[in-house]
Write a structure and sequence with these properties.
Elements (H helix, E strand, L loop, with lengths): L3 E8 L4 H14 L4 E8 L6 E8 L15 E4 L2 H6 L9 E5 L13 H8 L6 E4 L1 H6 L7 H12 L6 H11 L5 H16 L7
C-alpha cells in the first residue's frame, strides 16, 4: 500500500474528531506513517466538521486532494454530498442515512442525496448508524458504528483488533462495552450487506 486516504464528514456532536483520532492511533500502532487533520469546521453541535486521515509512506501532506479519497465516511448524508469532491469512481462511500436536520430547514430526500453521490462512485453503502447506535443504549456510539463499518471494507491496512485496541485506549472505560458493541454492529452491517454496493 502506498497511501490510504480517508475523509470523515459530518456535523459537530457526531464524534468525528474522536473517530479520526482512533483510526489514526490504530494506524500508528500498526507501524504506519499517519497524518490526521481537521480540514475545517466547528466541533460544536450542528457545525460542519471534516477530518482527513492519510496512512502510508507517501502520506506527507495532512490533507486529501480532491478525487483521491479511498474511502469516505459520511456521518451525515448532506455533509457526505457536500464533500463528495474528494471521491472518484474508485472511492467507497459509507453513508449514515439518518439526517442531522436543522429544524425548519428544507432537507432533500436522502434517496436524492444518495443518487447524487452515486454520480461520483458506484461504491456506496448506506445504513442507519443512529439506529445501530441506539441498540447499544446510546446514540453517542454512532461514530464507533462508522469505524466498525470502515473496518469491514478491508480498505484501511490496520487489523480489526488494532482498531479495537485504539478504542480501548481513547474511549473512557465506562463506555468501552457499548463502543465495542457499536463497532461490531457497524462491522456486521457492511459485511452482511455487500448487495448495497449498487
Amino acid at each position: 500500500m502506498s497511501t490510504c486516504n480517508i475523509v470523515l464528514a459530518g456535523v459537530g456532536g457526531q464524534g468525528i474528531l474522536l473517530a479520526a483520532e482512533i483510526v489514526g492511533d490504530a494506524a500508528v500502532k500498526a507501524g504506519y506513517n499517519v497524518r490526521v487533520s481537521e480540514l475545517h469546521g466547528m466541533a460544536q453541535r450542528g457545525g460542519a466538521v471534516v477530518s482527513h486521515v492519510r496512512i502510508g509512506e507517501k502520506a506527507l501532506a495532512p490533507t486529501v486532494l480532491e478525487g483521491t479519497a479511498d474511502i469516505m465516511l459520511g456521518f451525515e448524508p448532506m455533509e457526505a454530498l457536500r464533500n463528495v469532491q474528494f471521491a472518484s469512481h474508485k472511492t467507497t462511500v459509507l453513508v449514515n442515512v439518518k439526517p442531522f436536520a436543522i429544524i425548519g430547514a428544507r432537507y432533500p430526500e436522502v434517496k436524492e442525496i444518495l443518487e447524487q453521490i452515486r454520480g461520483f462512485t458506484e461504491h456506496v453503502i448506506p445504513f442507519d448508524a443512529v439506529a445501530l447506535a441506539k441498540k447499544t443504549g446510546t446514540i453517542m456510539t454512532q461514530n464507533t458504528v462508522m469505524i466498525g463499518a470502515l473496518a469491514a471494507t478491508g480498505i484501511p491496512p490496520m487489523q480489526v483488533e488494532t482498531l479495537k485496541e485504539a478504542l480501548h485506549e481513547l474511549v473512557p472505560t465506562e463506555y468501552i462495552d457499548a463502543n465495542i458493541r457499536a463497532f461490531e454492529l457497524g462491522y456486521n452491517i457492511v459485511k452482511d450487506s455487500t448487495s448495497n454496493r449498487i
